[in-house]
Amino acid sequence: MTEFGFKLKEGLLTAVLVVFIAFLFIRASGGTDKSLAEIAPPVLAELESAGLTEKTAIEAAKVFGYDRDKAVEAVYSANESVMDVSEVLMIKLTDSADAPEIKAAIEKRVEEQKNLYKSYAPQQYALLERCVIQVSGNTVFYCTAENADRAYDTFKNQL
Fold it and tell me: Residue 143: which residues within 8 A CB-CB, separation 6 or more?
């Protein structure tokens, strides 16, 4: 084989490797370009038995205490009963760098709820203990419900 042929193969292999590594990096960073309007319906279907009522993005920002300008979209549903802590929040962020701040706001809400329900509603407290809070790139997912894990799996598969 000529030196030119060897260098050509070496260059092509290097290019393929770089593209592959870039693909893995982008894939690992998570997030989505999809709209939450496309992602949310199958997730909410998993939570049908929780009796959730759809709320506005403004209500979500108020309840969880985050700056709503940091969210491109937010889908929030909660149970209307004060004796049921079931709720789900899905946020698509303007900038994925804001994810830790949004996650902290959600964790603060969960802790406040735990303090409220700990002494008189042990089943609701247990739901809060098992809640799911996950960040994937430009998305944040939170759910407190009986089947929160299944709802998160559905969310993750929709990304």
Answer: 47, 87, 88, 89, 131, 132, 151, 152
DSSP symbols for 28-47: HT---SS-HHHHHHHHHHHT
On whether the CB atoms of residues 135 and 118 are closer than 8 A, the answer is no
Amino acid symbol at 145: A
Rg of the Cα atoms in the chain:
21
Q: What one-character DSSP code corresponds to residue 94?
A: S
C-alpha 148/C-alpha 21 separation (Å) is: 33
Alpha helices in the chain (DSSP H): 3-28, 36-46, 57-64, 99-117, 122-129, 148-158
Cβ atoms of 90 and 141 within 8 Å: the answer is yes
Give the single-character DSSP code of 81: -
pLDDT in tens, 77-88: 999 999 999 999
**What is the DSSP secondary structure assignment for residue 97, as one 8-state letter?**
G
Q: What is the pTM of this model?
A: 0.82
